[in-house]
């Protein structure tokens, strides 16, 4: 009778058991990643990796420090003994990283520090291609439209986009022409930084409300950028303001691709779905697939997108 009761109870509980992809495990390891695109590996090692190693090596409880450097990327991993409080170690390592930042170049991207947790792996990855949209348009649609639809699904933490081409306005200056006018590329950079921005203008106070005021200076058209005046001093002491297009070639192009993805012989975009730490992987993926099917049935996903 006792055995029968245990079997019945087990069958009753079976339907309520949750299914997950991986067990809840947190490895005793902390990773730090810093990117500085275009910087050679040797310079990254001297200016970034060594500074990180010196500061992070004194993290309390760290038993092993590993580092790897390549062009534009520095990676440092800290290992701890099993049973060590990894959350306390993460806080300590974050403090060490903040101290190390004053020794790092100003050109680096914001550092990323995290503990190794299988739940941080993408719950699902999708490859998206289109026979009609060019790679720049497809990337923008996935990033700003499809990704925003999926991130609202319960249990989804983020929808990360990779691959494809990102729009980039290229300003290619003629170095000889700049030198003849006693200018260099930094003068062009300073001009673009000072002119291409929006500036807060305070508040406009009315009897019943306040209206925030903003001076909109960001470029919205390529023609505006081409006609941007550059102040020059002539040999006779006069000041000239030739447009930027006379000193540089300006193109509406895209960034150099660093990751190439293809689907059915077409350029594709990778969309990675990150789940929330306590969310069930299987449930999240099922919800995402149902949402994609519903969006397709409503015609919100173009027929040319696969």
Description:
This protein is an alpha+beta fold and 306 residues long. The chain has three domains: 29-118, 2-Layer Sandwich (Alpha-Beta Plaits); 122-166 and 258-297, Alpha-Beta Plaits (2-Layer Sandwich); 169-254, 2-Layer Sandwich (Multidrug efflux transporter AcrB TolC docking domain, DN and DC subdomains). The chain has helices at 2-14, 41-56, 86-100, 135-150, 175-180, 185-195, 222-226, 281-297; strands spanning 29-35, 62-70, 73-80, 112-115, 124-129, 156-163, 167-173, 199-205, 210-215, 232-233, 239-240, 248-254, 262-263, 266-275. The strands form five sheets. The protein has a four-stranded antiparallel beta sheet. Strands 5, 6, 13 and 14 form a four-stranded antiparallel beta sheet that branches. A two-stranded antiparallel sheet has the order 7-12. A hairpin with a 2-residue loop joins β13 (262-263) and β14 (266-275). The longest helix is centred in the C-terminal third of the chain and has 17 residues, at 281-297. The mean pLDDT is 82.
């Amino acid at each position: 009778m006792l055995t029968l009761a245990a079997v019945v109870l087990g069958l009753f509980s079976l339907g309520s058991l949750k299914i997950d992809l991986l067990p809840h495990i947190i490895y005793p390891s902390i990773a730090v990643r810093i990117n500085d695109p275009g910087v050679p590996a040797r310079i990254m090692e001297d200016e970034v990796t060594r500074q990180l190693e010196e500061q992070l090596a004194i993290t309390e409880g760290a038993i092993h420090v590993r580092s790897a450097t390549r062009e534009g990327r520095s990676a440092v991993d800290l290992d701890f003994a099993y049973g060590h409080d990894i959350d306390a170690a993460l806080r300590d390592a974050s403090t060490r990283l903040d101290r190390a930042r004053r020794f790092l170049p100003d050109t680096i991207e914001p550092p990323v520090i995290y503990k190794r947790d299988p739940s941080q792996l993408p719950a699902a990855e999708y490859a998206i291609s289109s026979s009609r949209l060019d790679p720049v348009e497809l990337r923008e649609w996935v990033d700003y439209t499809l990704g925003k639809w999926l991130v609202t699904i319960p249990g989804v933490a983020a929808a990360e986009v990779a691959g494809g081409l990102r729009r980039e306005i290229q300003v290619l200056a003629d170095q000889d022409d700049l030198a003849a006018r006693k200018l260099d590329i930094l003068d062009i950079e300073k001009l673009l930084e000072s002119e291409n921005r929006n500036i807060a203008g305070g508040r406009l106070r009315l009897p019943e409300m306040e209206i925030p005021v903003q001076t909109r200076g960001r470029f919205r058209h390529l023609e505006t950028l081409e006609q941007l005046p550059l102040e020059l001093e002539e040999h006779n002491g006069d000041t000239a303001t030739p447009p930027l297009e006379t000193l540089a070639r300006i193109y509406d192009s895209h960034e150099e691709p660093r990751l190439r993805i293809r689907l059915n012989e077409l350029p594709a975009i990778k969309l990675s779905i990150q789940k929330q730490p306590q969310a069930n992987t299987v449930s999240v993926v099922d919800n995402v697939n149902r949402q994609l099917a519903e969006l397709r049935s409503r015609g919100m996903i173009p027929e040319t997108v696969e």
